[in-house]
Q: What sequence folds into this?
């Protein structure tokens, strides 16, 4: 096989991983857009989505769409509890305080998952039973297409939500200036709750979609969260489009690096890219340079 | 007259004592118990090794004591947990040697913990039978250190001899980037020339990686006739799935690191056709009756499963063999540590769970590649191929 065909295969693999990172990055973006904090439990929400799907479909012949909806609903509910019981009771919410709480929640969720599902890795069925699709001499897994479809579907819906609906606009206003948003009559607490529910739902959808490829273990969330965070920073904090683009860039660079340079360098490449971006353009590709007056 | 009465009373007492000692199931020991130290990773990340080892050792000790112990001496196990941590292993080894004053030690369960305690047992001159697989434990030979598990070198030799027979001359290796994978890689590269095999690609993957298609794509571009993957779950299952995704037709060989039903569960249909070396315990019921290990294996499995009501794993056998070997040595040597060591070294032809042991001054592991069998996964079941 020549280099061009090989590169095509690396690209396919990179696009699949990129879509996964992009989906997780979108979850970060939603909460960031409502609260200006990074939710470090995002990776754990993805893990929960996958785990609940596996638990539901184990031994039963539950249709995949039903399982999908149930897992997303269950994790959304967990997202709501998360906000209601750990974020809202804060009397003086500072950004750093909330970030530390999310780290705490991520450890808690990981611990609970370890007790409930054990330390072993679990796997789930693919959405459709099909042979790999041949494109030239490269092959593509049908599950990759599902992941790509879900990523783009969610991206489209989110763009519509933020640009066209009053709730979406209200949510962005909250992040921009919470006090001012409250003064013009936006129920800011509800907006924050909604953002946690939305991002939990999104994380769950990502989890359900990716477990047939990546499999699922209680500690998978940490690395996924980290990669998703990389994607967010690459794309620009707060930009939905940027998150997905950042995810794809990260996935493709990783895969090309692992394939063409060395497989041992895979994770290092992602973080070198992140550092380079922070030096050259700290606001990310789609980010707007923040100007603060002191 | 008086004298006669005394004699009768004395005789009666003797008889009563004799009767007591002969009561079935309740042995009464006149002699001091022999203390044996056990040190396993009962909890922590390597608990899948330490837990069955501890259970097997306890079970065997009970059986030995029911049969009257070693030359009338019951054995008493002193068991400590390393949590898989070398620091804790060192602390507990010192406790066993200087506080509990044990005669010999079985364990630790992992290679890093074993390597950490070797200098201590060498200095204290106490026999140790490790339950860890690393080849560095017994090569070069250390005077006081033995081990029971098979090594990577034997698994590699078993695989390579099969490939040589099937005329596979060019292979690609894909190893996990941790101690298990590194040790496997070292052996795969070292032994290849001896079997006329050329390694045309060597790739690695991280223990938590979820996509190995870039590495496999690279391998696909080479003239490799087979892929050898060396790792522990879940990575090798991903490799199996990815090879199906890439529609690669060349055979996939795996290591004994995934010889458990968990691998078949994770890899699903992609597991079919994979060939791997494994200890005989996985396929105990299917090995031919002519195999001298078969009765030992079946007895161990039956005892373990009826005693603990859970499935037997391949790892408990390491401690079971260790304690059995020690018992054989102690029957001849008694409570003398140096003599126990000497007798251990002389053991030949002991049929154990992990293989047939033939110790010698130059081999403190005592196994050959015949301790492994090759199995092929067919329709989600193990099938012996040789």
A:
């Amino acid at each position: 096989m020549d280099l061009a065909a090989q590169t095509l295969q690396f690209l396919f693999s990179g696009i699949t991983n990129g879509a996964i990172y992009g989906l997780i990055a979108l979850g970060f973006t939603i909460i960031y857009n409502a609260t200006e904090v990074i939710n470090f439990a995002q990776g754990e929400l993805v893990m929960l989505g996958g785990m609940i799907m596996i638990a539901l479909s184990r031994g039963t012949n539950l249709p995949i769409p039903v399982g999908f909806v149930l897992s997303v609903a269950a994790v959304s509910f967990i997202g709501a509890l998360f906000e209601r019981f750990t974020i809202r009771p804060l009397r003086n919410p500072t950004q750093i305080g909330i970030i530390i709480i999310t780290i705490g929640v991520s450890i808690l969720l990981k611990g609970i998952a370890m007790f409930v599902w054990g330390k072993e890795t679990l796997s789930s069925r693919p959405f459709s039973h099909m042979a790999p699709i041949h494109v030239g001499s490269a092959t593509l897994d049908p599950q990759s297409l599902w992941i790509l479809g879900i990523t783009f579907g969610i991206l489209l819906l989110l763009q519509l939500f933020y640009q066209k609906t009053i709730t979406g606009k209200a949510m962005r206003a909250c992040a921009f200036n919470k006090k001012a948003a409250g003064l013009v009559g936006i129920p800011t607490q509800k907006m924050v709750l909604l953002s946690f529910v939305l991002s939990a739902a999104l994380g769950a959808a990502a989890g359900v979609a990716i477990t047939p490829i990546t499999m699922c273990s209680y500690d998978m969330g940490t690395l996924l969260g980290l990669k998703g965070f990389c994607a967010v920073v690459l794309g620009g904090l707060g930009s939905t489009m940027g998150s997905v683009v950042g995810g794809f860039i990260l996935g493709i660079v990783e895969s090309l690096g692992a394939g063409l340079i060395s497989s041992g360098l895979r994770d290092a490449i992602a973080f070198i890219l992140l550092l380079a971006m922070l030096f050259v353009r700290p606001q990310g590709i789609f980010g707007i340079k923040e100007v603060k007056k002191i | 007259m008086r004298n006669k009465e005394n004699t009768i009373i004395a005789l009666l007492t003797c008889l009563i004592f004799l009767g007591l000692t002969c009561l079935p199931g309740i042995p009464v020991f006149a002699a001091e118990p022999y203390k044996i130290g056990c040190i396993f990773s009962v909890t922590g990340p390597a608990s899948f090794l330490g837990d069955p080892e501890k259970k097997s050792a306890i079970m065997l000790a009970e059986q030995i004591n029911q049969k009257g112990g070693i030359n009338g001496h019951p054995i008493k196990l002193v068991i400590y947990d390393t949590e898989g941590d070398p620091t804790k292993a060192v602390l507990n080894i010192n406790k066993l040697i200087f506080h509990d004053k044990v005669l010999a030690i079985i364990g630790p369960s992992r290679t890093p913990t074993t390597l950490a305690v070797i200098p201590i047992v060498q200095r204290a001159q106490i026999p140790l039978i490790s339950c860890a697989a690393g080849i560095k434990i017994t090569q070069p030979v250390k005077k006081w250190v033995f081990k029971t598990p098979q090594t990577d070198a034997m698994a590699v030799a078993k695989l390579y001899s099969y490939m040589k027979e099937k005329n596979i001359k060019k292979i690609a290796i894909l190893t996990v980037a941790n101690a298990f994978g590194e040790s496997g890689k070292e052996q795969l590269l070292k032994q290849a020339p001896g079997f006329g095999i050329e390694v045309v690609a060597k790739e690695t993957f991280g223990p938590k990686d979820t996509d190995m298609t870039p590495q496999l794509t690279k391998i696909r571009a080479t003239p490799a006739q087979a892929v050898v993957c060396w790792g522990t779950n879940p990575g090798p299952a991903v490799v199996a799935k990815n090879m199906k995704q890439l529609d690669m037709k060349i055979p996939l060989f795996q290591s004994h690191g995934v010889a458990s039903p968990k691998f078949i569960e994770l890899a699903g249909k992609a597991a079919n056709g994979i060939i791997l070396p494994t200890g005989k315990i996985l396929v105990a019921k299917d090995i031919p009756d002519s195999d001298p290990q078969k009765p030992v294996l079946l007895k161990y499995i039956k005892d373990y499963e009826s005693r603990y009501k859970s499935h037997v794993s391949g790892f408990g056998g390491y401690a079971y063999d260790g304690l059995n070997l020690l018992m054989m040595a102690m029957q001849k040597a008694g409570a003398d540590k140096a003599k126990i060591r000497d007798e251990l070294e002389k053991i030949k032809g002991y049929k154990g769970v992990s293989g047939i042991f033939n110790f010698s001054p130059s081999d403190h592991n005592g196994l050959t590649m015949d301790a492994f069998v090759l199995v092929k996964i067919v329709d989600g079941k193990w099938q012996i191929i040789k």
Summary: The interface with chain A takes residues 177, 203-206, 208-211, 213-215, 217-218, 220-221, 233-234, 237-238, 241, 244-247, 262, 265-268 of chain B (CB under 8 Å).
